[in-house]
Design a protein that fits this description.
By secondary structure, the protein is mainly alpha-helical. Among the domains are: 116 residues, no CATH class; 133 residues, no CATH class. The protein is 67% helix and 6% strand. It contains 27 helices and nine strands. A three-stranded antiparallel sheet has the order 7-8-9, covered by helices on one side. The protein has a two-stranded antiparallel ribbon with strand order 1-2. Strands 3-4 form a two-stranded antiparallel sheet. A hairpin with an 8-residue loop joins strand 5 and strand 6. Helix 4 packs antiparallel against helix 5 and helix 10 runs parallel beside helix 12. The termini are far apart.
Amino acid sequence: MAKQQRIGVYGSGIKPTGIDSGAAGKMRALAGLGQVMSDVGIAIAKPIIVTKRAEEGAQAAEEAFKTGGEVKQLSAAKWGASQFRSAAEQKTAELRSAAEQKTAELTRNAEKIYRSELSTESAQTMAGFAEQFKDDPVGFNDAVENYIKGTVSAITDPVLAADINDRLTRTALSTGQKIQSAFEVKQANKGIVTLGNNISSKTRQANRLAREGNADGAAAILEDISADQDSLADLSPKFKAQLQDEKRKVKNGLYENKVSGELDAIADDPEQGISAAFAKLDELQGKVPKGYDPSEWDAFIQTAQTDLGRTNSRVQSAAAAATKQAERDASNYVSSVSAGFVVSEEETAAVMAGVAGTKYEDAVVKAQEIAQYSLATSAERAELRAGAEALGLDGIDMLQAMNTQEDFINRAVQADAYGFAVRQGIVEEVNFDPLLLQDDIDTPVDEYAANQANFQKRIEQSAVLSEQYGYTVSPLSAPEARILTNALPGLIRSQKIAVAKLFKDAPGVWGQIAGKGEGSYAQLSALGNDNVMNVAFDGQDRIKAGSVKAIKIDDFRKDFVEETGNVFGPDDFASAMQAAVDYYYGSVELGSDVYDSGKFRQAVQAVTGGIKKVRGVKTQLPEGVDASQLEEYFNNMTQEQYAKAGGVNVFYNEVQFEGGGLSGDNVITVQKNKALDAVHQGTIKAVPGQGKYIIIDPQTNMFIPGPDGISPFEFTVSSADISAMKAERNARINRFARSPVSGAGVPIMDIQP
């Protein structure tokens, strides 16, 4: 028996190794080898295909992401289907993550850009609202609220919207608080002025009632005064600190007037008289009332003694007392009458009786003569002085008296022309409140209309007084001008312009306030241009608010001097330059901190109405008039026009021809007007007041005098005056052109300057 072969392993079956079955066996052996090779091929190829499928899955995911489509999955039966799907899903996730990151980055960048742009735009908008509503806190809040709502509503991101809303609200609140504070200060200042005036007025009334013995009436007014003082203390910390002392002073004043009234009653009582009054005062001197310190009570006692002394003398002898009183009465009478003040017939009779036969009688009579001089017009006074001077030694005393009185009149007119005229009885005082403005909501319409009507009466009176005194008289008294000056800083822009328009035809007002710290306002108001005033007042507000940077005044001075030359005197120089500075600040860009010489020179021309050379010298031009027109106006002025304007003609004879004829002694002279020669040839110099000029005579280098022979004669020139002169000149030329050649018509000299 053949040896059995060992058993081997083939594929999955177990077969004996030594058995040969022939061809069939060989084929089966080969088939088994093929299966083995197939399994080996699969083992090698499948990982490659799976890897490729993963790459294809990733690529398919990229394509689908780009197009926005879906990834088409492989059949689950195919090799690598799961790897394809897994790779596609992973790639899709990576792409989505990258896209989300990019979107987030873009969103962040867009938000940064939006925040930056919104910051710039909102800052500009807030600044515009702050300027527009600087005097209207409620209007500012409403405008800002609407702006914030509109801005936030357009933001879709709730987080960003909330943040922006918070930021804008904080900015608006800060700016609004500043506007509110400034507004409250303005209102408080206005209230302080009003309450202060009310307290003063009521105090005077209460003192009068107390002196008259009306204690109940004075007490009732005292309650009102105390209430006004409490209100003033709420507005003014300075006044609040001294409130109790102020109340004490008012009460003390009422008590003093009560005592003074009682002393007056004793002095006027025939049974008691002045001696009893002084005795009563001596009794009171050592009894210091509650609420007084000894020095205050002593001061009152001294005042009361003075008051009693005005009524009579403390001398024991009645005769001596009467003499001294007559002396005082005569002195007061002479001063009042010499000045032209109104003195009653009763007072005149009493004084005349008191000085009869005394050394004062001549002085009283002479005062009555001087009174006629004081009440004369400026031109008439000049004639009276000339007449007295012509008398030589016989008129020297009267001339000296006239000159003394002329100095007194000029000082009084300069100090308070309207008040002086009222005291002289030349005009009757017309009630007028310079601060009763139309745009004040508290002003009744009828009260405003009545005040305006009274102002027109004041204007008419000032024209009369200007002729009377030979000086441009303001329609305001000196106390009224002080009230106006003190109130101006607290007025809003519209009120300042309203005041300027009100006094446009009263140039004397600007001189009254210019010297009291309101030179810029006086310069701007005298010009009377609304646009110029708006810009300049805006400049003042900007400086106060700090919206433009203040520049050193020395930076302006050089350009101002070059632009104006010698047009302005020291006082007017400062006023005009400050007005130009205010206008400059109102014309530059907000936030500007670099000096612009060109803009400042424009500002100078704007606030002055224009400064140009006229007859080779710089001067200020009237509004709407150029340099050539102004020069032609004076060049073409006729003798009649000069006289009509109020000028004083001064004639002299000039030899035009000498010699000739049979005897050779013919002399031809022509009458010339020295004053008119100066008008045609002299230097034209502007003076305060729009369109006001004086002429410097080139022969004497002195101004052409006015009717009083002392003050310079002021020419008033406007565009209307220039047009009227031109029309008149053309009419003369036309009349001459229509005249016969024989000369029977208008002479040639009538169409010459």
